Amino acid sequence: MASRNGYVTKTYPWNDAYLAALLESDRKKIPARLQAAESAVNERLHALSADHGGIPHERQALEDATNGLKVLRQELSEWQSRQSSASAQRRDSTSSQPASEPDQSNEGADNCKSCKSENQTAFPSKINIHFPGKRNLTKPTVLVFPTLLVCLDCGFTEFVTPETELRVLKEETAQSRTA
Ligand SMILES: [Zn+2]
Question: To 5 degrees, how large is the angle CA 159–CA 67–CA 171?
């Protein structure tokens, strides 16, 4: 997948399917994309193990993709269960509270929060989160695979820490406060 800046990271055929799954913004389409990406990655892993070859670089990329897809699948199922409980709640509350529809205010949400540019692009990433403070140097870090939304004009970047990892950050932070 070539970026419109013309700089191309090393790509593999399976990588397109992986990125398509990762970058799909329509939740309803994610399950199909995820399926396609998983089989593309697995197929490639099989091919590589058959000829005992492959470039180390690609093996690493495949490993990252496998992890990324795992996280995506987990987020998807969490989102789906949230969806079903949310829609149940909505049905219950329509008679009593017909007022607020918070989802309506999404206008302009695609613009950079810093410079309002529309020139934002999503990038898959691997981020190693360290706990702050000297005494936390030995604490294990938390690895996340978020999709980064990078403003290509000012560099402002945002991402959402997945729920599972967020819980770890929360618990560890609470622990080091009371320690
Ligand atoms: Zn910006």
Answer: 60
- From ligand 1's centre to the CA of 108, what distance in Å? 13
User: What are the residue ranges spanned by the domains of the chain?
Assistant: 13-99, 108-178
Contacts (Cβ under 8 Å, ≥6 apart) of 1: 8, 11, 15, 16, 19
* pLDDT score recorded for residue 1: 46
Contacts of the segment 124-127: beta carbons below 8 A, 24+ positions apart = 124/18, 124/19, 124/22, 124/23, 124/68, 124/148, 125/159, 126/64, 126/67, 126/68, 127/159
Ligand 1 center to 39 CA (angstroms):
36
Give the pLDDT confidence score for residue 103 in this predicted structure.
Answer: 46
Looking at the whole model, is its pTM more than 0.90?
Answer: no
Distance 121 CA to ligand 1 centre (A): 11
Alpha-carbon dihedral sign for residues 125, 131, 134, 140: negative
> Residue 86's closest CA among 102, 106, 105, 107?
102
Average pLDDT over residues 138-151: 85
pLDDT band at 126 (very low <50, low <70, confident <90, very high): confident
For 23-58, the pLDDT digits (tens) are 887 778 888 899 999 999 988 888 887 766 667 778
